Amino acid sequence: MRGKILQNRLHLLVCSRRSTMKNIAIVGATGLAGRELLKLIHLRDFPLRHIKLFASQQSAGRVIRDSGQSFDVQSIRGDMFDDIDIAFFAVDGELSRRLAPLARASGAIVIDKSSAFRMDPHVPLVIPEINSDAIRAHAGIIASPNCSTTIMLTGLWPLLERFGASRIIVSTYQSMSGGGAGLVEGFEKSVKMYVEGRDTGPLFNNVTPHIDAFDAGGNSGEETKMVEESRKILAMPDLPISATCVRVPILRGHSMAINIEFPGSPPVSPEEARALIRDFDNGIRLMDEPDHGVYPMPINTNGEEFCAVGRIRKDTSSSNGLCLWISGDNLWKGAALNALQIAEKLA
Ligand SMILES: NC(=O)c1ccc[n+]([C@@H]2O[C@H](COP(=O)([O-])OP(=O)(O)OC[C@H]3O[C@@H](n4cnc5c(N)ncnc54)[C@H](OP(=O)(O)O)[C@@H]3O)[C@@H](O)[C@H]2O)c1
Q: How many structural domains compose the chain?
């Protein structure tokens, strides 16, 4: 009798999993974010029925191997979204703007990694740990934030949730992979040129305070994204935020130095902040024993699902402020993982 009940339960479990299984498309599957997404779909055992991979004409026919399976890459075409439930976009904004409406018209829900729709008031901009409720308001397109915005807000969330914020100042140290496969290739060429004793250009042995185009006020596109996207995700349209975004010569992993000020008093102590982060246990990890060499670094967070927070100390320039240092994997939490976590909420 007991065996029969267990068998029925197992059957129900299998049936309900089958009913949530999804047909997936990844547009930009050969790129840095797209490749990591395919890996994570398997690693996180996403309920997958079928997957189609798309990239540019030059990648059509290429075979991608992942988790012991082979997948054919196709070029974009009119019927590419037929029968697709969720279409992940990991291409540039221009292509997303062109193809996302096509996917939506075919009945797919688009999860877009580009900046194309992030500030559209009708498109939810989502970090699942923070504002997963926003997903419910989607009208066929959901945007995933910029990599630095995602890592910063994920790391700060326990403090923001408890104390709010009256000001945030952030300086980023962003890796080459944040700029896509082309930039990584350029960086690797520069390293080779250095080894050969040739002039490397600005990518190697240098830092560049220039990510995306500058506006009339002198802010780069990346800096404006961090400000505007953070305000939208936190639903704090007037939050004072200032960002300086810098590319550093490492391959993977973004870090940032943050000064956060809190409203009211008494001041938030570093001990209180550490306890909140230690206990939060959802996408972040406290690494804050500087005397023992324990603090966040990209080598700790690359290929990891958590963002690391440490170097927490009082901001000596503020009556109620803290300084923190956060690292996270721009290709996982900053891109593919966050997009997949959004899809998991839909599944
Ligand atoms: N890298 C990050 O850390 C990160 C973080 C957050 C958000 N994002 C965003 O995610 C998106 C992808 O970034 P990425 O770093 O993965 O870029 P990437 O490495 O340069 O990959 C770009 C992808 O787009 C495909 N593509 C280019 N032109 C195409 C076309 N005409 N038709 C179809 N596919 C085309 C490429 O295919 P081919 O290989 O065939 O050229 C490739 O698969 C961007 O919007 C980026 O801003 C990236």
A: 2
